[in-house]
Amino acid sequence: MEIIEERIGEVTVLKLTGRLDSVSAPELKDRVKACARNGQLHLVIDMAGIDFVDSSGLGSLVACLRSLNKGAGDMRLAALQDRVRAVFELIRLHQIFEIFDSADTAVDSFRNA
Amino acid sequence: MIRPTVEVVLQCAQRLDLLRLATEMSRLICTTLSASDLDQDLVDNVELAVSEACTNAMRHSQTGDANARMIVRFELYEDRLVVEVKDQGAGFDLDKVPPPNFKEHPDGGYGLYLMQTIMDEVFYTRGSEYNTLTMKKYFRKEGPFPS
């Protein structure tokens, strides 16, 4: 999985490409931890390039969200492919994440808060 | 006894980095070998179930033995795909796996639920050499052909 980081004001966008599964999940967790250590507490995960997730991959997103929330941070998701959204809904994770149609609208949601 | 039209076996070390061999194989079998014109959702679901099953086998069945093997067997029939994932771990009792906690949403505990939701049949047997998780997916939406 490739992770590209972009800063837009106070918001950090992590753009993911590839597969988010038990192989790549630790990489995402490490990257989010590094952001938090660096004081980057408002994250948008741009999922447009993710074409496969399993429960390990989704579990890593939950762990990242919990970890950021403990430090007064937040993480929002953007641009889920239909296939990925279907897995989110199967395990009802759409109930705990704020999910936006695009990374831009997710970034704006932090600015307008 | 009806024999499968195609039988493919992957045997490898119980290493997480080999997971994608199994998931790619499931996709290839569904898309290139099946005589049925399978819809994309079915192919996606089988790939997800194989990922969950193999991750469980590799992650939760660690024996500490570097030589421990995992076997993934795909049996393609006219009306269904059967996937067996065999591991050499301690095994578990399928009936004692708790359902997902949808109130607190922890970061794990969804794998078996996903497999049981998206596949038509899931069962598990413990053996002296291998434990076997078996999953079946029928190609007709209404389930197995009547016998």
What does this structure look like?
The complex is a heterodimer of chains A (113) and B (147). By secondary structure, chain A is α/β, with parallel strands linked by helices. Chain A is 42% helix and 32% strand. Chain A has helices at 25-37, 55-70, 82-90, 103-111; strands at residues 2-8, 11-20, 42-53, 74-78, 99-100. Chain A has a five-stranded mixed β-sheet with strand order 1-2-3-4-5, sandwiched between helices. In chain A, a hairpin with a 2-residue loop joins strand 1 and strand 2. In chain A, helix 1 (25-37) runs parallel beside helix 2. Chain A starts with a strand and ends with a helix. Chain B is α+β, with helices and mostly antiparallel strands. Chain B is 30% helix and 25% strand. Chain B contains three helices and five strands; from the N terminus they run E-H-H-E-E-H-E-E. Chain B has helices at residues 19-33, 40-60, 111-118; strands at residues 6-13, 69-76, 80-87, 121-125, 131-138. The A-B interface holds A 19, 21-23, 52, 54-56, 58-60, 62-63, 66, 83, 86-87, 90-93, 95-96 and B 16-17, 19-20, 23, 41, 44, 47-48, 51-52, 55, 58-59, 100, 102, 105-108, 110-111, 113-114, 117-118.
Topology:
The complex is a heterodimer of chains A (113) and B (147).
Chain A: E1 2-8, E2 11-20, H1 25-37, E3 42-53, H2 55-70, E4 74-78, H3 82-90, E5 99-100, H4 103-111
Parallel strand pairs in A: 2-3, 3-4, 4-5
Antiparallel strand pairs in A: 1-2
Chain B: E1 6-13, H1 19-33, H2 40-60, E2 69-76, E3 80-87, H3 111-118, E4 121-125, E5 131-138
Helix pairs in contact in B: 1-2, 2-3
